Amino acid sequence: MFKGFYTVGSGMIAQQRRTEMLANNMANSNTPGFKAEQSSIRSFPEMLMSNLDSTKIPTQKGLNLHGLSPVGGLSTGVYMQETMPSFLQGAMRETGMTTDIALIDGNLPIDEATGMAGAVFFKLDNGNGTEAYTKNGNFTIDADGYLTNPSGNYVLDTNSQRIQLQNDDFAVSSNGDIMENGAVVATLGVAFADQPGLLAKSGNGLFTNAAGNLPNAQGTAGVGYSLQQGYLESSNVDAGKTMTDMLTAYRAFEANQKILQAYDRSMEKAVNEIGRVN
């Protein structure tokens, strides 16, 4: 009976965490460049239940042989093992703003170990010589003329240097060259991650790499991409599917809750009625 409490409780916790993840996806469905989180729910190792019995052999002194009779497996509950963002490309949305730049995936190498394609990101200054990465190209120019993202991180060029411009009257080519008055003043830095699933989310649509700064996508064999000024990449959240998944998770939580209430009523009956001494 008590094992049932733990099994049902683990199911409720897993569905609660999944609901929180889906709610965050829904809240960011209109955030440019946002990558939807996906979850994997796994079962704890099963316990093999056996019945301890004995066989009496009719000898002169009497001999009992103990043995185990398998009853079957018993699940010990489930847990949400991890969450991982989906790096599928979102739809392109035209804004007409010169500081809005969309990073469009091209041919990206597929990692043999995972079978997943790599990903490209804008390079941002994360402080202390480290970089952060994003697909949100909703940039702006600060008071000192530096190109920054909505969180205030400086956008970096191919040499990991900050990009300073005269004003917002500039043009960006498909390969990332930034031109003012017809002259190239910088090239937008684009990083390539061969295993994007290893990147860590750091909030505000940013990713970091614990193993160090990612290599430049420019010049990396087999990596293709393009940039489009005046456009933004939309979130890749499927609002309809996310809402359906939220309702499914809620129903699963509710089902576990009803089972927990049934266990509670059974325990109450065992304590108050079966164990009563007349």
Automatic annotation (TrEMBL):
The keyword Disulfide bond does not apply. It comes from the Bacteria. Residues 5-35 form the Flagellar basal body rod protein N-terminal domain. It is found in: Bacterial flagellum basal body. InterPro entries: Flag_bb_rod_N, Flagellar_basal_body_rod_CS, Flagellar_FlgE/F/G, Flg_bb/hook_C_dom, FlgE/F/G-like, LlgE_F_G-like_D1. Residues 228-272 form the Flagellar basal-body/hook protein C-terminal domain. Pfam families: Flg_bb_rod, Flg_bbr_C, LlgE_F_G_D1. Keywords: Bacterial flagellum, Cell projection, Cilium, Flagellum. Residues 117-178 form the Flagellar hook protein FlgE/F/G-like D1 domain. Belongs to the flagella basal body rod proteins family. PANTHER family: FLAGELLAR BASAL-BODY ROD PROTEIN FLGG, FLAGELLAR PROTEIN. This is Flagellar hook-basal body protein. It comes from Sporosarcina oncorhynchi.
